Amino acid sequence: MKKIYFYIPIVLVCQMSTVAQTITCDDTSIFVIGNSTTASLRGLHKFTKTSSSLNYAGQIGTIPNTTETAGAGLGLAIADLGDGQRFYTSDYAGHILEFDGTSWNTLATVSDGTLNNPGGKNEFLYYQKYSPDFSVISIVRYQNGMINEIWNDPATQITLADLAVDDVGNVYFFTGTNAMVDYMTDTLNVMSPNGTILHQYSISFDFLGGYGLCFLNGGLYMFFTESNSDYPGKMVRIELSGSSAITTTQYLVPKPVVGTATNGPIYLNVQDADTCSSSGNFLGVDDVTPQDFFEMFPNPSTTQLHINAYQNGKLTIFNALGQKVMHQDLNSGVETILDIRTLASGMYLVNVELNGNHTTKKFIKQ
Question: What percent of the chain lies above the pLDDT cut of 90?
C-alpha cells in the first residue's frame, strides 16, 4: 500500500560557498559529493569522462555540516522540478534539501526514518528511505510537496546505495535476496514512477562499497570504493544482454588532494554521483510498451477504479456499445480515483493516451 507523507514546513537555510548558478548538462560531466577542502564540510566536485578515463575537474562548492543539517550531503541528485536543473541531497533528520543557486533549503521531511541516496532526472526525484532502526529500506518519490512511498518489498533488500533515473522517470536499483548474509547483488530492477516493476535483470557482484548509480550519454554507471572486492576504486559501466545485466568497461576513480589537515593531505573520498545527461535508449525501443504506461485496480470493482499513470495523459472509458461514459485527465505520479458507482454492471474499455501512445485495458463493473 502506498503511503503519503505530507511535508512539514520547516525553514532551513544553509549558506553555500561558490557554486555555479546553472548546472552544465552535457554528456561528459559527472557531479559527485565527497569530502571538502575544509575537513568539516562536504564538498561538491566535478569529474569529466573521456572514452578511456575519468578526470577530476575541481571542487565547485560545499555543503555545511552544521547542527541543523547533521549529516547533510547523504547522496546527490540532479532534477528539474520546475525551476531549472538543481542539486538535491538530504540529512539525518529526514530533510529533502534543494540548492536554489544561493543556499540550501528544506522542501519536505519525514519523521519516521531517514532519507538517503537520491536519484533524479527531469521532473522526477526519488530517495531511499530507511526505517529508524535501518532494518527496512523503501523507495519514495518527492512530488508537489509530498513524499510518497512507491516501493517496499520485505522479501528482498536494496544493495547499492543509490538510485538511477532515466529520461521518463523509471527508477533503476539493485537488490539481493540474501544480501545481508552473502553481501551479493542478484537483480537490477527497473521500476515505473508509480512503483510498478517493469523489468528485472540478473546480475551478480559484491555490493560492499557501492555508492553511485547514474546515466551518462546513454550508458549506466556505478561507483565503488577501494573496499569492494570486485571493482576497487572503479566506475563500472553496466549493459543489458537479454535477461541479464553485465558489467563492462571500468574506469579508475580519481582521488586528488583537495585540502590539507593537521595530520596531512585531504584526499577526495567520493560518496555519491549524479548527472543530468540523457539515459538515451538504454532499455531499447521494444522494452517499454504502452501497456506499461498505466495500472488500474481493483478489477473487477463496484465503487472505485484507481488509475496510476506513467506520464501525463488522458483517460476515456467506453461501454460495450462503444459509447463514451467517462473522461479524465491524468497526472504522472498522482493516483486518480474514479467514482464508478453510477455505471451499469458489465464490461468497459479504459483507453489511455500518454504522449501520443494509446493503450486499452478491460475492466468489469460489478
Answer: 39
- Give 264's contacts (C-beta < 8 A, 6+ positions apart): none
Nearest Cα neighbor of 219 from 19, 85, 12, 54 is 54
Residue carrying the nine cell digits 552544521: 66
Element at 356 (helix H, strand E) = none
Q: Is the Cβ–Cβ distance between 224 and 233 less than 8 Å?
A: yes
CB atoms within 10 A of CB 320: 10
- What is the DSSP-derived secondary structure letter of residue 89? E
275 touches 54 (CB < 8 A): no
Of the chain, the end-to-end C-alpha distance in Å amounts to: 23
* Rounded CA Rg of the chain: 22
Separation CA 211–CA 284 (nearest Å): 26
**Interatomic CA distance for residues 348 and 315, integer angstroms:** 13
Q: What is the pLDDT of residue 10?
A: 30
Nearest C-alpha neighbor of 82 from the set 109, 107, 116: 107
Name the DSSP class of 69. T
Please report which helix (H) or strand (E) contains residue 179, including its range. Answer: helix 179-182
* Cα distance between residue 238 and residue 222, in whole Å: 8
Query: Tell me, what DSSP letter sits at residue 344?
Result: P
Report residue 184 CA to chain centroid gap: 21
Question: Using CA atoms in the order 300, 141, 328, 1, what is the torsion angle rounded to 10 degrees?
Answer: 20
pTM, whole model, 2 decimals? 0.73
Residue 212 burial (CB count, 10 A): 26
Task: Select the more confidently predicted residue: 16 or 268.
Answer: 268
CA distance 316 to 326: 6
Residue 35 has a CB neighbour count (10 Å cut-off) of: 23
At a CB cut-off of 8 Å and minimum separation 6, what does 96 contact? 88, 90, 106, 107, 108, 109, 115, 118, 125, 127, 142, 147
pLDDT digit string, tens, across residues 48-59: 999 899 999 998
pLDDT tens-digit profile of 225-255?
999 999 999 999 999 988 899 999 999 999 9
Q: Which residue blocks in 230-357 are alpha helix, DSSP H? A: none
The rounded distance, in Å, linking the Cα atoms of 120 and 86 is 10
